[in-house]
Amino acid sequence: MSYFDGLPGKPPRERGIFCNRTMNMRSIKAIGYDMDYTLIHYQVEEWERLAYEHLRTRLLAHGYPVEDLRFDPELVIRGLIIDTELGNLLKVNRFGYVKRAMHGTSLLDFEPMRSAYARTIIDLAEPRFVFLNTLFSLSEACMYAQLVDLADAGKMPAGTGYEQLYRLVKSGLDEAHMEGRLKAEIIADPDRFVVLDPEAPLALLDQQRAGKKLLLITNSEWGYTDAMMRYAFERFLPNGMRWRDLFDVVIVQARKPDFFMQKSPLFEVVSEDGLLRPWIGPLKEGGSYLGGDATQVERSLGISGDEILYVGDHIWGDVRVSKSVLRWRTALILWELEEEVRAAYASRVDEARLGALMEEKEALELASCQLRLLAQRHREEYGLPEEAPSCDEVLARLGALKAALAELDDRIAPLAKAAAEVSNSRWGLLLRTGNDKSHLARQIERSADIYTSRVSNFLRYTPYSYFRSRRGSLPHDPSGEAPSPNPGP
């Protein structure tokens, strides 16, 4: 067998790159990368537990009764929305309707959820709603839900409202990050926190040698960026090559999303320990900088708009703003996608059974509706067909259909429950709410030209791939039925 016979071809489904908007990689001249949860992946549970513990320590120091609280990695998922007015976490569909809700740490039944949100379309422009954009949000949301329970039990200071609880959590986490203690612990023990991916450096090398300009644009500080990139990348690079050699430009403390929207002073990093000096003028090839803005990057590279692809994990800070303001092409890294795809494919048989039963139910329901109309016409004595069955026959048939529907519902219920709990028993799949797309899926659809689980997935697709979006589906599209052999005139 020749080498060509053994070419790897497409990767496993869960390692695929999925396309919302057709994009030719050959037309991309520069690729910018975020770092955290993009180039560097973390052990999510370890990182978020550490962040949670720092937050709990801060709350304890201020006298809040949180000593018995523990981080629960299954409590929340990315893509939920916090309602700071009612103390709820929400899973919302693409139209803004609430499909599942949790007050504190307890899932709401249908009726209280309907009572709270029947007249509400979730709009993220309203300040009461907070979208959990990234995996960094999990510790924040877990603590918030637990504090709601404490407040409801009367264990928080009198007058502490749900919105105030969120501000308390948010400010506590922000302070923990600003003090630098959290990241210092990660630098001290990266084996515990970082998921190594030996294919990611090779994917970037392929892009660099194919003529792409590579950029690293991160909100992290220089010391943390340098330590993490050395740890995760340099062991997999050719001898003597440093991680900085991969990038034409490195920008730290970029302050995204403002980086894409506002002008900002620029400083050059002139020493390994992060010494800075003001910088005016074009960015130097191979230079490392702090601050600045995206327009400086475009001017220095001599390229702009859809010639630049930006890759990140934050829907708003990385993907949405770079697309809407600068018209850069965008790629979203969704670490959970691999488990999402595996879970979806593992449940295909049950999903098909559920689909078949639902089609059967729809047919019985339509027949029942038609018989109810026939019974109405009998009562009101109008519009009866000449050969219509008697009213008693119609009512008898309606009774039989009602019994058949009840029996069908008994078969559907466990399958529907299982489908709603695929991947996570509280929230189900990340990108679905029942048969519909989740709000997270809609955000990805609107903002990301392509999405995938990790940067190393570019390796098999190469810097020369043409990503083609699928034909968009509509409710009236054929659903796989065989066409009629005699379609008629």
TrEMBL record:
SUPFAM superfamilies: HAD-like (SSF56784)
UniProt keyword terms in alphabetical order: Hydrolase, Magnesium, Metal-binding
InterPro entries the UniProt entry points to: HAD-like_sf, HAD-SF_hydro_IG_5-nucl, HAD_sf, Pur_nucleotidase
Family that this chain belongs to: Belongs to the 5'(3')-deoxyribonucleotidase family.
Organism: Polyangium mundeleinium
Record protein name field: HAD-IG family 5'-nucleotidase
Renumbered residue ranges of the record's region Disordered: 470-489
Organism placement in taxonomy: Bacteria, Pseudomonadati, Myxococcota, Polyangia, Polyangiales
